[in-house]
């Protein structure tokens, strides 16, 4: 079965089936231009794509997939060293870009390939085997140089089909988002999802409240930063009342934002969990309970388990914290040229170690505590999830946002330090007491730092290692 089934016909084809940052293409126009790209890249070891939010980016990605060439999205804001690493490590021979884009390659031996939307080709390409590589997606590189996760075509198809089932996503939908096109969320879900289900796609360019409000969609994707900005504009938020489903991911959605979004739009948002290596594995359902702070249940075909530091199983009792491990058809094949990283990431019985810590309830609902490296705090003999403390802090009416880290401490091992963005007059002592009234006393912050904003990456995730680096200085 073809990966991009909507390009094979049978779904209808409006002139604006895809609209990206104000520019429209029909699926027929996309297929013709993408096939012309495929003619130029066929046989290449890999195709890098300078992944701006543009119709040229989508055309280049589809062209690579048609030709069976692994696609390597390159963040357009990547620095010279990061771009050089991605291009060299992936073995890309070509870097696709829009006509007129001055950024030709960036590394010797990698040729620029200008994507011309007026070119057409009628070449017919056989569908590549499902177990061949569709993408090499590079991780954020927080623990060193970015690693290339090798994603099979059949893993993408399995994930999109499972999400279509969970979210009741069909060709009748109009998907709206403004997310970057070099990540799983914006590209694989937000573009290929539309090209598999047959839904119309509106990419707003920048994900602004006014852009979302004007798009007239039935299905919206966003990260917490997007939804936070939307609820700060009640008039724009109210215009999403006609939508069918709002989906939040890439980082935990603060409970106050969840509640405001539900109140202003009439829709409790869907939350889901995944990562580059696993794609999306857990989600709440369109026809199920949407519980604030929870990412729901495993998708069809996905299995999950919690494991303790000693390797023993952790019970699904709604309280016990363990590392989340996953298995199923959406998992990546491994890291490109990194057998050492593969050995660290897989268990002997074939489960992927996510590096995230979570709690699973008796009803199977999953709650992600955070990254084991920064969000599992060991303080005074206790194991504390940073997410639980953050949620308590956000319940305070004078807190706009919060991030909690475990800073080195000679007495406790790690001391809980909270970085708080205030939304009114409040002191650190007041917030410490507030948390102690709601959680166990040992979970209270030992120090509260009031900051104007939290450092985040392009997908809205808080850069906690940056906070930890600053922790001893404030």
Draw up the topology in text.
Elements lengths: L17 E3 L2 E3 L1 H15 L5 E4 L4 H13 L3 E4 L5 H11 L3 E5 L12 E5 L17 E6 L9 E5 H15 L6 E4 L6 H14 L2 E4 L5 H7 L3 E4 L1 H8 L2 H5 L6 E4 L6 H11 L4 E6 L3 E5 L13 E2 L4 E5 L14 E6 L6 E2 L3 H7 L6 E9 L5 E6 H4 E4 L2 E4 H9 L4 E11 L3 E10 L5 H11 L8 E4 L13 H8 L3
Parallel strand pairs: 1-10, 3-4, 3-5, 5-6, 9-10, 9-11, 11-12, 12-13, 24-25
Antiparallel strand pairs: 1-2, 7-8, 8-18, 13-14, 14-15, 16-17, 17-19, 19-20, 21-22, 23-24
Helix pairs in contact: 1-2, 4-5, 7-9
Describe the structure.
The protein is an alpha/beta fold and 474 residues long. The chain is 29% helix and 26% strand. The protein is built from 14 helices and 25 strands. Helix 13 (428-438) links the parallel strand 24 and strand 25 (447-450). The chain starts with 17 loop residues before the first strand and ends with a helix.
């Amino acid at each position: 079965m073809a990966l991009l089934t909507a390009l094979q016909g049978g779904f209808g084809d409006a002139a604006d089936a895809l609209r990206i940052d104000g520019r429209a293409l029909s699926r027929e126009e996309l297929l013709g231009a993408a096939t012309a790209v495929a003619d130029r890249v066929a046989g290449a070891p890999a195709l890098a794509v300078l992944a701006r939010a543009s119709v040229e980016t989508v055309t280049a990605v589809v062209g690579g997939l048609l030709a069976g060439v692994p696609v390597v999205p390159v963040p357009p804001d990547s620095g010279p060293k990061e771009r050089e690493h991605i291009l060299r490590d992936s073995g890309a021979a070509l870097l696709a870009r829009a006509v007129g884009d001055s950024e030709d390659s960036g590394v010797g031996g990698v040729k620029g390939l200008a994507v011309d939307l007026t070119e057409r080709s009628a070449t017919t390409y056989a569908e590549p085997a499902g177990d061949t590589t569709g993408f090499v997606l590079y991780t954020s590189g927080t623990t060193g140089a970015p690693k290339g996760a090798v994603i099979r075509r059949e893993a993408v198809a399995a994930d999109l089909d499972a999400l279509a089932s969970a979210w009741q996503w069909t060709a009748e939908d109009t998907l709206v988002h403004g997310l970057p096109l070099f990540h799983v969320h914006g590209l694989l879900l937000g573009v290929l999802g539309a090209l598999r289900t047959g839904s119309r796609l509106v990419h707003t360019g920048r994900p602004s409240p006014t852009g979302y409000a004007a798009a007239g969609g039935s299905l919206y994707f966003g990260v917490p930063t997007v939804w936070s900005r939307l609820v700060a504009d009640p008039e724009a938020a109210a215009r999403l009342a006609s939508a069918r489903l709002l989906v939040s991911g890439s980082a935990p959605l603060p409970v106050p934002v969840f509640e405001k979004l539900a109140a202003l739009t009439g829709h409790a948002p869907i939350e889901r969990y995944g990562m580059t290596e696993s794609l999306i594995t857990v989600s709440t359902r369109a026809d199920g309970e949407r519980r604030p702070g929870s990412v729901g249940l495993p998708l069809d075909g996905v299995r999950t388990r919690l494991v303790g530091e000693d390797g023993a199983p952790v019970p699904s009792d709604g309280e016990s914290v363990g590392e989340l491990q996953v298995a199923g058809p959406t998992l990546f094949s491994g890291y490109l040229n990194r057998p050492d990283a593969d050995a660290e990431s897989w268990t002997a019985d074939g489960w992927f170690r996510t590096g995230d810590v979570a709690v699973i309830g008796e009803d199977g609902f999953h709650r992600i505590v955070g990254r084991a490296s920064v969000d599992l705090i060991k303080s005074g003999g206790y194991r504390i999830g940073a997410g639980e403390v953050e949620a308590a802090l956000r319940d305070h009416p004078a807190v706009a946002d919060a991030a909690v880290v475990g800073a080195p401490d000679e007495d406790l091992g790690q001391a809980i330090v909270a970085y708080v963005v205030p939304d009114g007059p409040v002191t650190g002592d007041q917030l410490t007491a507030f948390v102690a009234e709601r959680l166990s006393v040992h979970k209270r912050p030992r120090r509260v730092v009031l900051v104007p904003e939290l450092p985040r990456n392009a997908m809205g995730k808080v850069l906690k290692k940056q906070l930890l680096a600053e922790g001893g200085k404030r």
